[in-house]
Every structure is written in structure tokens, then in C-alpha cells.
């Protein structure tokens, strides 16, 4: 992984994924170290994101690295019409690694091809979000004790939800049984299903959430994202279809945990928050350790 | 219509390449993909010619030009049935069929409007994949979306 960009979860083999998760476990025990001392990390957010950006910045600062960058495109030279290539080439002069979020799909792959320093994709449009994927895997392993042979239920926007795409592809390494709950309009794209079929794994598609809750080890809820819909009418039709509340969990397995990449709107009721099966806020904390592990392994410091 | 008559419709070349059995509607695309609109050599082409096998076909003849396999295979997306005939001194020295390559670069657009290749000056790159029904699809190297054959547009 040394000096290699992380653009898509497909860039990592099963062994590399496990190596990151093991390293993240070490950082969880000891998150404040001087691992990144003297390193400059550029954080280029061409599209705003509170959670991912702050999680990366916290990961870097806890490891004594420094951060440069911008939090939105209007405060950068992009607003003057600079091409992505020029921005990346310029910033790579000032930094050892670039963390980048961009609204255009494929922008991170392209940046990794023109950049002399490694790129970490922190989300490229509706395409990939590999660091979220790794923290999701970390959270699943931590709560279940294993990644193998689990019943994992994805709920909500499976079409535009990039976290769902990356995670579903990664789980194909681990003999997962997939339960896919979505409105017909928001089914998992065939490009992602192809991975599940190639791995010869089981998947079932549902439109109703109730029938799969009790069989699940993990329920991965997603927000129906208004900003991804080309047609606002399509959004209005489906925005409130799933709402998970506490009473629905009464027959669920003891080891069930509910994950959500956050931010949540109304797909998980607040009454679930106090249920021991709710795991979404701890999940967000795991993101710091996982990002520490990714940074350290790409910069070959661990 | 016999073979001799066709040779008369699109005149013979003494050295170069004949691309025969092109779907007639694809002739101009083939010309563009191979850059024949910019060559200094003589190019003859015919469309809507009678063909025993295909009903109608197109043909292109290019003087003093021979193609590397990977170059000629670029036309396989629009002319999978095409045959390549190389001619030296009016004699056929080689005949070959085109085959669809594993990777396609620059000639096709990604159908995802939000792909970097449609937003900035980035040449397209695809790998050729087949779905479970055997349909050809192009998987974008950048945005990872698949473009199916019905959605193919050429750069």
C-alpha cells in the first residue's frame, strides 16, 4: 500500500483490507502518537462535508501531522476556473499526501493519475467512498467479532448511495448474505450486483423493511439523498419510505447492530438511539482510527 | 451481383488495406475512428452496396496503409462483422476478422454525465465486460459506471 493511492475499495485486496483493520485496532488503543510528525497532509474538499473532513483532520492532528487545504470549492482557485489537474499538481508541491472530495465521479482516479503524491479519495460524487467503507467494515468486525458469513441488510437508497456500493463490493470477500431493501426506483445498480454474482453469493431484494429485521446481524441504514436525484419529483416519491423505530427491533437478534454513514434525517427514529443495538455514533468515531491506519500505511509509517 | 462488378464500383488498389463487410450505417464512424478523414493517402469508400451475407454493406479501401491489430480492433464496436484484407501488388496477402479488444480508449464517450471525462479534458478509458446475458458493456475506468451498447456515442 506504500505510496499507492486509495481511490476505490477495489484497489485493496482482502488481505490489504484486513491489514488496515488490524492497524486501526492498534490506533484505537493508542490514537495519540507522533506517527505523522513532519508530514503535511492536504485536505481538498471541492464539495462540503463536515464529518469526513473533520474525521480526517482529527486523525492527522492526533498523529502530530499538519493539515493544509480548503473546505469548499468557492474558497479555492476552482472558482476561478482552474482545472482539477492544475490544482492537484500545484497542491502536490506543498504536501506529502492529498485527501480529496469532489462532486464529479472519477475525479479521484484521474487525480491519482496526474498526482506525484498519493491520493485518498474522500468521496467522488455518487461513485466511491473507500475510507467510509473501511470504517464500516471495521465497525462490523468490532461488533460481530468477524466479517465472515453475516446477514447484512442494506436499507434505503441503494442506487445513489456510494457507501452502499463500496461496502457491498468489499463484503463480497467475506461470504456475506445480502438483503437489499429499497424502493423499486432505488435498487442496487447492476454494476454492483455483478460483484455479488461473480462471488456467487446470495442476495435478496425487498421493498419492505419489516420482514428482514429479525434475520439480520447488521442493518445498514442510509439516507435518501436529495442532492443525488436528477429529478426532484422522484425524490419526493421516496423520501420517507423507511423509518426504523425501536418497536420494530423487539424480535431482532441480540448481536444485531444498526449502522448508518450519517447524517441521519428521519430514517432512524430518535428512540432507537438509546437502544444498545444502535451503533452509528460509535461507527463515526471508528472513522478516526481507520483513517489513521490508512494514512500511516500509505505513507509507510506503520 | 458478382465480385468483379463490386471491384468496379469501388476501384481497386494496388497496395493497402480493404475493410469489407462494414455495416453500411457505420462506414463514416469507421472512417472517423481510424482517422481516415485526416490521412494523406487515397481513400475510397462505398455505402449501401449489395451483400449476399448482410443485405447491404459498406466497404473502405485505403492505399499504402496497413493497420496494427490494436488499431483495427477499435472499429470492432461499430463493425464487428468487418473483414480486413491486406493487398500488395493487387494480391491479397492477408485476411483477418476484427476482434473486440479488452480495453477501449478515447473513441467512446462515457454515458454518465457526471463522469470526469465529460466534465474536464480527460480522455475516456473503458474495459470491455459482458453481463450475465452476454451483452457487451463498457466499464468506465474513472467513474466505474457501465455504458451499454445502446448508449454508445463516439467522441
Layout of helices and strands, plus pairs?
The complex is a heterodimer of chains A (about 300) and B (about 160).
Chain A: H1 14-29, E1 40-45, H2 50-62, E2 66-70, H3 84-92, E3 97-102, H4 107-114, E4 119-124, H5 130-144, E5 151-155, H6 162-171, E6 177-181, H7 190-198, E7 203-206, H8 210-213, E8 218-221, H9 232-238, E9 257-259, H10 280-298
Parallel strand pairs in A: 1-2, 1-3, 3-4, 5-6, 5-8, 6-7, 8-9
Helix pairs in contact in A: 1-5, 1-10, 2-10, 3-4, 5-6, 5-10
Chain B: H1 3-9, E1 15-22, H2 27-33, E2 43-51, E3 55-63, H3 69-72, E4 83-88, E5 91-97, E6 103-105, H4 116-119, E7 125-130, E8 136-140, E9 146-148
Protein described:
- The complex is a heterodimer of chains A (302) and B (155).
- Chain A has 302 residues and is α/β, with parallel strands linked by helices.
- Chain A has two domains: 9-128 and 287-298, Rossmann fold, CATH 3.40.50; 131-284, Aspartate/ornithine carbamoyltransferase (Rossmann fold).
- Chain A contains ten helices and nine strands.
- In chain A, the strands form two sheets. In chain A, strands 7-6-5-8-9 form a five-stranded parallel β-sheet, with helices on one face.
- In chain A, helix 2 (50-62) packs across helix 10, helix 5 crosses helix 6 (162-171) and helix 5 (130-144) packs across helix 10.
- With 155 residues, chain B is mainly beta.
- Chain B has two domains: 3-97, 2-Layer Sandwich (Alpha-Beta Plaits); 103-151, SH3 type barrels (Roll).
- Chain B is elongated and about 50 Å long.
- The termini of chain B are far apart.
- The mean pLDDT of chain B is 89.
- The chains are: A alpha/beta (302), B mainly beta (155).
- The interface between A and B is medium-sized, with 21 and 21 residues.
User: Number of helical segments of chain A?
Assistant: 10
- Indicate the proportion of strand residues of chain B: 35-45%
Task: Give the overall shape of chain A, derived from the CA principal axes.
Answer: globular
- CATH T-level fold name of the largest domain in chain B: Alpha-Beta Plaits
End-to-end span of chain A in angstroms?
11 Å
Strand numbers in spatial order across the main sheet of chain B: 2-3-1-4-5
What is the CA-based Rg of chain B, rounded?
Answer: 17 Å
Number of strands of chain B: 9
Quote the distance from N terminus to C terminus of chain B: 36 Å
Amino acid at each position: 500500500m506504500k505510496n499507492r493511492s486509495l481511490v476505490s475499495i477495489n484497489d485493496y485486496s482482502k488481505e490489504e483490507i484486513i491489514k488496515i483493520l488490524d492497524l486501526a485496532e492498534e490506533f484505537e488503543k493508542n490514537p495519540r502518537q507522533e506517527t505523522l510528525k513532519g508530514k503535511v497532509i492536504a485536505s481538498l474538499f471541492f464539495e462540503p462535508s463536515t464529518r469526513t473532513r473533520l474525521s480526517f483532520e482529527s486523525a492527522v492532528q492526533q498523529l502530530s501531522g499538519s493539515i493544509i487545504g480548503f473546505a469548499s470549492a468557492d474558497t479555492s482557485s476552482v472558482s476561478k476556473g482552474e482545472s482539477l489537474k492544475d490544482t492537484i499538481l500545484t497542491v502536490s508541491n506543498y504536501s506529502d499526501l492529498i485527501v480529496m472530495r469532489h462532486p464529479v465521479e472519477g475525479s479521484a482516479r484521474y487525480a491519482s493519475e496526474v498526482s506525484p503524491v498519493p491520493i485518498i479519495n474522500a468521496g467522488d460524487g455518487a461513485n466511491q467512498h473507500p475510507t467510509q467503507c473501511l470504517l464500516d467494515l471495521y465497525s462490523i468486525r468490532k461488533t460481530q467479532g468477524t466479517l465472515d458469513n453475516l446477514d447484512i441488510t442494506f436499507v434505503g437508497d441503494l442506487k445513489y448511495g456510494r457507501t452502499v456500493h463500496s461496502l457491498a463490493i468489499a463484503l463480497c470477500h467475506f461470504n456475506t448474505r445480502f438483503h437489499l431493501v429499497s424502493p423499486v426506483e432505488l435498487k442496487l445498480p447492476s454494476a454492483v450486483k455483478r460483484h455479488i454474482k461473480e462471488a456467487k453469493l446470495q442476495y435478496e431484494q425487498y421493498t419492505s423493511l419489516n420482514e428482514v429485521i429479525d434475520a439480520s446481524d447488521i442493518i445498514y441504514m442510509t439516507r435518501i439523498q436529495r442532492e443525488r436525484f436528477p429529478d426532484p419529483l422522484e425524490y419526493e416519491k421516496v423520501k420517507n419510505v423507511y423509518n426504523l423505530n425501536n418497536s420494530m427491533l423487539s424480535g431482532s437478534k441480540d448481536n444485531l447492530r444498526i449502522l448508518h454513514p450519517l447524517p441521519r434525517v428521519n430514517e432512524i427514529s430518535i428512540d432507537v438511539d438509546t437502544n444498545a443495538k444502535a451503533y452509528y455514533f460509535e461507527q463515526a468515531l471508528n472513522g478516526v482510527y481507520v483513517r489513521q491506519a490508512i494514512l500511516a500505511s500509505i505513507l509507510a509509517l506503520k | 451481383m458478382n465480385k468483379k462488378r463490386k471491384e468496379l464500383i469501388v476501384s481497386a488498389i494496388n497496395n493497402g488495406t480493404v475493410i469489407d463487410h462494414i455495416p453500411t450505417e457505420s462506414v463514416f464512424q469507421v472512417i472517423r475512428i481510424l482517422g481516415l478523414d485526416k490521412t494523406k493517402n487515397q481513400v475510397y469508400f462505398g455505402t449501401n452496396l449489395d451483400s449476399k451475407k448482410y443485405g447491404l454493406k459498406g466497404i473502405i479501401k485505403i492505399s499504402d496503409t496497413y493497420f496494427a491489430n490494436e488499431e483495427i480492433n477499435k472499429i470492432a464496436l461499430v463493425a464487428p462483422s468487418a473483414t480486413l484484407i491486406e493487398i500488395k501488388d493487387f494480391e491479397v496477402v492477408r485476411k483477418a476478422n476484427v476482434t473486440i479488444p479488452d480495453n477501449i480508449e478515447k473513441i467512446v464517450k462515457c454515458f454518465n454525465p457526471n463522469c470526469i471525462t465529460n466534465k474536464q479534458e480527460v480522455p475516456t478509458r473503458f474495459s470491455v465486460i459482458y453481463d450475465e446475458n452476454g451483452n457487451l458493456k463498457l466499464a468506465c475506468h474513472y467513474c466505474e459506471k457501465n455504458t451499454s451498447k445502446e448508449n454508445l456515442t463516439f467522441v
